[in-house]
Amino acid sequence: MTVGLALAELIAVLTAVTQGEPKVMTVRRGEALPSGPFELGHRSLQSGLREWVQDQTGHPVGYLEQLYTFADRDRTHESAKRRSISISYLGLVREQAAPGAGKPGWHGWYEYFPWEDHRNGRPAILSDISDQLQAWAAAELPRREHRKRRVEFAFGLHDAAWNEDLTLQRYELMYEAGLVAEAGHGAAEISSGRPMFADHRRILATGIARLRVKIKYRPVVFELMPESFTLLQLQRTVEALAGLTLHKPNFRRLIDQQQLIEETGEVTSETGGRPAKLFRYRHAVLEERALSGSKLPLSRN
Amino acid sequence: MTVGLALAELIAVLTAVTQGEPKVMTVRRGEALPSGPFELGHRSLQSGLREWVQDQTGHPVGYLEQLYTFADRDRTHESAKRRSISISYLGLVREQAAPGAGKPGWHGWYEYFPWEDHRNGRPAILSDISDQLQAWAAAELPRREHRKRRVEFAFGLHDAAWNEDLTLQRYELMYEAGLVAEAGHGAAEISSGRPMFADHRRILATGIARLRVKIKYRPVVFELMPESFTLLQLQRTVEALAGLTLHKPNFRRLIDQQQLIEETGEVTSETGGRPAKLFRYRHAVLEERALSGSKLPLSRN
DNA sequence: CATGATATACTCATCCAGAGTATAAGGAGA
DNA sequence: TCTCCTTATACTCTGGATGAGTATATCATG
Fold first, then answer.
1. What is the set of domains in chain A, with CATH numbers?
2. Most A CBs within 10 Å, among B9, B38, B216, to test the A interface
3. A19-57 burial: b if 16+ Cβ within 10 Å, else e
């Protein structure tokens, strides 16, 4: 009887937003997510990863949440016929290292998922992608209708609207259809985003999807903001994550009716037009009550 | 340099609802959740658990979802100074084994968490619990206010309303305050529910919380229902999981405006009064579209 | 045939989210 | 200095969803 011995590995999807662009920390020149073995010295998984990231990047991790645990057999480390278990985490950090000295390479989310950014309208690539997916769906007879519905729903075709939360479902469909490079087979004639090592891009998709869902009911955005910020800066950050533009008046209404932030008393005129008030997150006061709220208003435009 | 070798173990929170009561599958006469090593032969974590449960209970698992991965050092299996990683899952099964022959022991959720069942009003135990928690919160000076707010929010004191989703937060607070038996110290003078081995009750709380959240936006309830059912049976099942009573007319409105179910054409008069129409879940048609909907109406009473 | 029980159908008020419009306050350039 | 442009901030309107209550239908039972 074999005992369940396995290699335990930690993988991090570390995200920051700088200049209105969501970034992920990578290694190997953008080809892989940072990862490392889970060592005996660590107190727990959570703290193990925290220490490890601190060492690697010099940045403290604000918010840290477990994503998923994988154990597929087609992973590396299969040297000794041993299984490798990967425990992935989503982490939010406040700032990006000064680009130059630091080794950590930050890359934009949308290099890897160009079809996920709808801030400037529906990306052109989506036409190609959905064409190919529909062809793929129509090809296989047995589960044809089922596939068609999955594609239409995930990509917001026909009557369905684009749903930014379905990042993972979209990637998985494209993977099944052989449209992404990692798959090996198919090799992706269309420009389907930058590939990554092994299943790292899938893990990144998991992280993006999780964060997009989360910002709607938990005030995690503030983990990505500087100490003080304007309302538009906050909105731009949310938009960057969601890959959508928001309705400005409604965004403001929602934010202040939740009382998550307070004025610092200062204003900044670095924004161009009329000077904007600066706000800060009300850490202390809410921490727990905030569990309930924090929705965000979406719009068509 | 230590390599991340660890024992991988699977733990399941298997849930069924019979006669309007939510149950969990246990071993050791209700003292532990079923668990087992993750073996080399398994294709993946998911399928490993699926096979294992099938063997143990004879029931197929309908819905299966990963809950959380733990790796605390105060777990068992610390024989060889080796860490043990526990990957927990939430599984839904349609029926309970005929009580008698089968070994699996099903126990009601609310044996372990009596304060979580509000279907017959606020349980009396909650007065004791919140008294003790407030005393505990008031005792420690430094973070007093913070603790007070956590308790009030989690248990719906003062202005806050009872929120059924906070099962895990409530258990954790009680654990911190030494009100549950697992904590060791304190030994729980009050009847704070049946204890479990190690951190199994915490894992159960995680599963309950996850399921309570999930039924609000995904049609997972149907994994617990028989092929055909009446609307009231469906409502009773949801109420059992949420630990709350629902507003009947609104429940019905919500269900049929989501078009999740369809009439079978038959009726049953086993329910007492006027015979009720039987319905079935529309598996095929929706599977994917259903991703969006499936909320449920809560009420005060 | 009345009564009690459950099933099913409607109505009403409130709140909230999406969408649009209007005014304020700065800077840049004619 | 005045005008225009840009961004910030404030207000209104409408439709739909949600919480809550009420009325009618159809069975079994005494």
1. 6-110 (3.90.79.10), 122-192 (no CATH), 225-291 (1.10.10.10)
2. B38
3. eebbbbbbbeeebbbbbbbbbeebeebbebbbebbeebb
